[in-house]
Design goal:
- The protein has 14 helices and 17 strands.
- By secondary structure, it is of the alpha+beta class.
- The strands form 4 sheets. Strands 1, 2, 3, 6, 14, 15 and 16 form a 7-stranded mixed β-sheet that branches.
Length: 448
């Protein structure tokens, strides 16, 4: 279809929506008038979407069909509908019920959506939604305008577009080793995600099996169901910064959201001990604690090394082949400072440890993260095990942002509460623990 003709019809349709917008705002509507206007808005919006899709296709493939078949857009029908509506309004002798303010707002929002429709080009739609999201969080548009631009709002919050949500999660994966090396399950609902584990019900027998049949299985399985929970974090940006036009406000907002989200997520996954946000499956709670049989002098390099070897062998062979080590900065400093009786480093930057501590320790791939630290960050902490046994359930489309205008008003800041739904648990069979933890404070096992 001819692009010029499509633009002409598009303009006429938008003008009709503007007329309807004026009608809605002019008087208190009756229920009958509201229903008729809503029906017409829906019809005009449908036509506008068809036109936008065709224009988008023309822009994408560069074609410009000169055929003029605009009669399909039912202009004559629209005009006759308008005339019928005028005649119906004149015989309004009977008392008509008035519509609520909420219904009026709903019609106005529908009109606004119709005027801002774009073609269903995925990349264009995503870009438009991202910009609308930033405009909303920066205070340039209100909730109704954001909704008309394709951003889902409700309960004071706005759903984060998929593109931005992916950026936040990608940043979290870079900073949070549990996301990077754990098992992530993306779901579309908040229902629990089942994980099978071996249950301690193995069977044995002394008598020969003549008439006694072998059971179907000698190892049973239990099902651990993850339980997604509400999860939130808080970021703040100064209002002075939001009003500046010479800086990239969008990137600043995204950076703050990412930092706040990652900080909360790591706290929930590693420790899970915040009030009203307890995670019984957190790494520090579920990992088996390792204690050397005898007290360790943490300044004695060979003694520390022997304790690390014992720590390694606390893990079953079947788990050890897929294991890796996580440690905090204090643990890294402890290992790098270990020396033999002659003062030579036990770990050097050679074939033993080609990439420093971030390479391998005791033959295991190693990562350093402050996520494993205790309240006293000077205490060395080690984790050893199969990271795939740490399971994360992400609920797609659950991430929301809520602006907190008043809460930080006295400090001239804008607050953003990031809301998400997830669960994160270390899950393993009692028959085969997959993660051990050593707080290297020099103390020994009580049994030792």
């Amino acid at each position: 279809m001819n692009k010029t003709f499509l633009l002409k019809i598009q303009k006429e349709k938008r003008e009709r929506l503007e007329e309807l917008n004026t009608e809605v705002r002019a008087d208190v509507l009756s229920a009958d008038d509201a229903a008729k206007i809503k029906d017409e808005v829906d019809a005009v919006t449908k036509d506008l979407q068809d036109i936008a899709d065709q224009l988008s296709a023309i822009d994408d493939d560069g074609t410009d069909d000169k055929s003029n078949d605009g009669d399909n857009l039912k202009d004559d029908e629209d005009r006759s509908d308008d005339e019928d509506r005028s005649n119906e309004k004149e015989d309004g002798d009977e008392e008509r019920s008035k519509v609520s303010e909420q219904e009026t707002r709903s019609i106005l929002a529908a009109i606004n959506r119709g005027k801002n429709l774009q073609g269903n080009d995925k990349q264009k739609q995503e870009k438009r939604q991202v910009q609308a999201f930033y405009d909303y969080v920066a205070g340039r548009v209100n909730s109704e305008e954001a909704r008309s631009l394709g951003i889902v709002t409700g309960n004071g919050g706005v759903t984060v577009p998929k593109t931005i949500a992916k950026q936040v999660i990608s940043y979290a994966q870079e900073q949070n080793p549990l996301r990077q090396f754990g098992e992530v399950h993306s779901t579309t609902s908040t229902e629990g995600y089942p994980v099978l584990v071996k249950a301690p019900t193995a069977q044995g027998h002394k008598k020969e099996r003549d008439t006694n049949e072998i059971p179907d299985t000698t190892i049973q399985f239990d099902e651990v169901v993850m339980d997604p929970t509400e999860f939130d974090a808080l970021a703040t940006v100064t209002k002075k910064l939001l009003k500046r036009s010479d800086v990239n406000i969008e990137q600043i907002i995204l950076d703050e959201l990412q930092k706040a989200y990652v900080q909360k997520e790591m706290q929930y996954m590693f420790n899970g001990d915040e009030a009203d946000n307890v995670n019984d499956g957190a790494l520090s709670k579920k990992a088996k604690e390792f204690k050397p049989k005898a007290a360790v002098d943490m300044s004695d390099g060979p003694a520390v090394y022997q304790a690390l070897v014992a720590f390694k062998h606390s893990l079953k062979t079947s788990v050890r082949k897929n294991a890796m080590i996580m440690m905090n900065d204090a643990a890294e400093a402890l290992v790098e400072g270990m020396t033999d009786k002659n003062g030579r480093p036990l770990y050097r930057n050679d074939g033993q440890l080609a990439d420093g501590i971030s390479g391998k320790l005791l033959g295991f791939n190693t990562v350093v993260t402050e996520g494993v630290s205790l309240a006293d960050e000077s205490v060395p902490v080690f984790y050893l095990g199969d990271m795939k046994s740490f399971h994360i359930q992400d609920v797609n489309g659950s991430m929301e942002i809520q602006k907190l205008d008043q809460l930080f008003a006295l400090t001239n800041k804008m607050g953003y509460k990031i809301y998400n739904i997830l669960d994160a648990q270390l899950i393993y069979s009692p028959l085969e623990p997959t993660m051990y933890k050593w707080v290297a404070d020099g103390t020994a096992s009580k049994k030792g």
